[in-house]
Automatic annotation (TrEMBL):
GO terms for cellular component: membrane. This is MALR1 protein. PANTHER family: APICAL ENDOSOMAL GLYCOPROTEIN PRECURSOR, MAM AND LDL-RECEPTOR CLASS A DOMAIN-CONTAINING PROTEIN 1. The gene is Malrd1_0. Disulfide bonds join 140-155, 366-381, 565-577, 572-590. Keywords: Disulfide bond, Repeat. It comes from Indicator maculatus (spotted honeyguide). Residues 1-112, 159-320, 384-557 form the MAM domain. Coiled coil: none annotated.
């Protein structure tokens, strides 16, 4: 169906309405292809009209012509219990001719689960009226999966929160940089954040979001604290939540579990970057021998299009704890680790956990996943996020300088090498070819890493290397920010060093302008390797190369969950579980390519 605009009258509106639908299931989505072409062709908007609600809910928008091409739009409807219609409106600006068209409208997975003749086993729940058989993990998750509400009956309100009436038993952390904000409808910034909540699927429902606009800065954090829970054995406690990470500059959402009140605790889950304009469900299995608390932490990205949404948080199989968590002293004793290892039965191929003496496989050391309770297997390893603040090198080292001694060490002070720097220490005129502010804080007091081209000669190189990394997962990548400004700037390379073999992964040369630029380098599955940042000096001192905020994203190896894959997951041939929306996307998420098999 298409619209041809030939009249010159201002703000003409064409409207197309769907039939009225009685209801939709929890996984309902709508997709269609649209064409919106013309110099001033005008905006288009898809709205949801729900019986009993006075105002519509905006589901999708396009603001301007998007070229001579068909584009696909995907809209998440979710569970809508009331009758509803969809309305597509097209506004013409009345200045130039334009053409808008729509085709191939598809509703997918919009039906409720069908009745079942039987529903046996502890992992299933039989719906009271509809007689559908659903997964037990869908019970008491604030979503009517049955269609009759029976899966949400007799649930403990202290174990779930949809934020319709506040934060429930959750609390804002007082030691973070900003708070999660409770809101209805779209967030204030266009092209980022949710348009509606997850609970009701409309602009009338409430959810939490993290604001990424000024005055907040890159890596500022908003932390939400759960109530306390009693120890949970054998992964019996389950945490479910829905999140949205939509926007070009979305950074990071993480979930931690802590048993000590003044620590961050253990990382259970995290996700980086833009995940699209949709609510995503996540399920986390929790084990703990001590009372514990869950922390949901959002981190601000490098710009205002980085809002993150959170809704419908719930626990299953967990018991509230009325006591308090212990604290640990923050005063150091002057020794960081015992001089000798604890008593253990570990082999030479295994790593000894420093506090407990537990044994883990050697390949589990320095793999971005803490396998020891005290995280000692990830000590002296590559750091997941390095921002060089407080003049911290994050374990990076320069092999050429470490080999120097005696007279050579004196020569090292004038050699071309990596150094920590900040804008506050620059001499007049140096800001023409060296960053005046760092990327992390955007201030002259923030630290970064740079190679001073006033030392050395043309063609000299300087390497900075990570500690040895034992193993990475299939989606592992490095994200970092680089600053390359100057009339005689040299080059910057990222290399992978495995044994005596070095391969180039990324390179850039020449002046890139007076700003920090983002770079992303895919690593994928690798073992026993190091990452090298190599810079080459230009023909003169007018051009320093700098890097900041080096992040290893999604680098922990795949972990066999020790449980059946959930209905939202696909079981790889090697028994790993991955989200089903990762199937057939030309990326080897399983590490054995079974998710890209033609037989799926």
């Amino acid at each position: 169906m298409f619209i041809v605009k030939t009249s010159s009258s201002i703000s003409q509106v064409a409207q197309l309405r769907s039939p009225k639908f009685r209801q939709s299931g929890p996984n309902c989505t709508l997709s269609f292809w649209y064409y919106n072409y013309g110099q001033s062709v005008g905006a288009a908007e898809l709205e949801l009209l729900v019986d009993g609600l006075r105002q519509p809910t905006t589901l999708w928008r396009t603001y301007y012509g998007e070229g001579d091409q068909w584009l696909k739009a995907e809209v998440q409807l979710g569970r809508l219990a009331q009758p509803f219609q969809l309305s597509l409106s097209k506004i013409s600006l009345g200045v130039y001719d334009g053409i808008s068209a729509i085709d191939d409208v598809v509703f997918d997975s919009c039906a409720l689960p069908p009745p079942a003749a039987s529903c046996e086993g502890p992992n299933h729940f039989w719906c009271r009226d509809t007689r559908a058989c659903i997964d037990r993990l869908l019970v008491c998750d604030l979503v009517d999966n049955c269609g009759d509400g029976s899966d949400e009956d007799n649930c403990n309100p202290d174990l779930q929160c949809n934020f319709e009436n506040g934060l429930c038993s959750w609390e804002q952390d007082v030691e973070d940089d900003l708070d999660w904000v409770r809101i209805q409808g779209p967030t204030p910034t266009v092209n980022t954040g949710p348009l509606k909540d997850h609970t009701t699927g409309t602009a009338w429902g409430h959810y939490l979001y993290m604001e990424s606009s000024q005055p907040y800065h890159f890596q500022d954090q908003a932390v939400l604290l759960s109530p306390l829970f009693k120890p949970a054995g054998n992964r019996s406690c389950v945490f479910r939540f829905h999140y949205q990470m939509f926007g070009k500059q979305v950074y990071k959402l993480s979930v931690f579990q802590r048993t000590v009140s003044n620590t961050q605790g253990q990382l259970l889950w995290h996700n980086f970057g833009n995940q699209g304009n949709r609510w995503i469900r996540e399920t986390i299995y929790i084990s703990s021998s001590n009372p514990f608390q869950i922390l949901v932490k959002g981190a601000v990205g490098d710009g205002f299009t980085g809002d993150i949404g959170l809704d419908d948080v719930s626990f299953l199989g967990c018991t509230l704890y009325q006591g308090t968590l212990p604290t640990i002293s923050t005063v150091t004793s002057g020794t960081s680790a015992p001089a000798t290892l604890p008593m253990n039965n570990c082999t030479e191929e295994e790593f000894v956990c420093r506090a407990s003496g537990h044994c883990i496989q050697g390949i589990q050391k320095c793999d971005f996943r803490p396998d020891c309770p005290d995280r000692s297997d990830e000590g002296a390893c590559a750091v997941e996020v390095c921002n060089f603040e407080d003049a911290d090198w994050c374990g990076l080292y320069q092999p050429a300088l470490e080999l120097m001694s005696g007279p050579e060490s004196i020569r090292a002070t004038t050699s071309f090498k990596w150094e920590l720097g900040r804008g506050a220490d620059l001499h007049p005129g140096e800001e023409k070819h060296c960053p005046l502010t760092d990327h992390t804080t955007g201030s002259e007091e923030g630290w970064y890493l740079f190679a001073d081209s006033s030392n050395g000669e043309f063609g000299h190189t300087a390497d900075i290397i990570t500690p040895l990394i034992s193993l990475t997962g299939p989606m592992c990548k490095i994200v970092f920010w680089n600053y390359m400004k100057g009339t005689t700037i040299g080059s910057l390379e990222v290399l992978c060093k495995t044994g005596n073999r070095t391969s180039k992964l990324w390179a850039q040369s020449g002046s890139q302008g007076p700003q920090w630029n983002r770079a992303e380098v895919f690593l994928g599955i690798r073992s026993e390797f190091q990452v090298v940042f190599r810079t080459k000096r230009g023909v003169s001192y007018m051009g320093d190369v700098a890097v900041d905020d080096i992040t290893f994203e999604d680098c922990s190896p795949l972990l066999i969950p020790g449980r059946p894959c959930t209905p939202e997951e696909f079981m790889c041939a090697n028994k790993y579980c991955i989200p089903k929306d990762h199937l057939c996307d030309f990326v080897n998420h399983c590490a054995d390519n079974s998710d890209e098999s033609a037989t799926i």
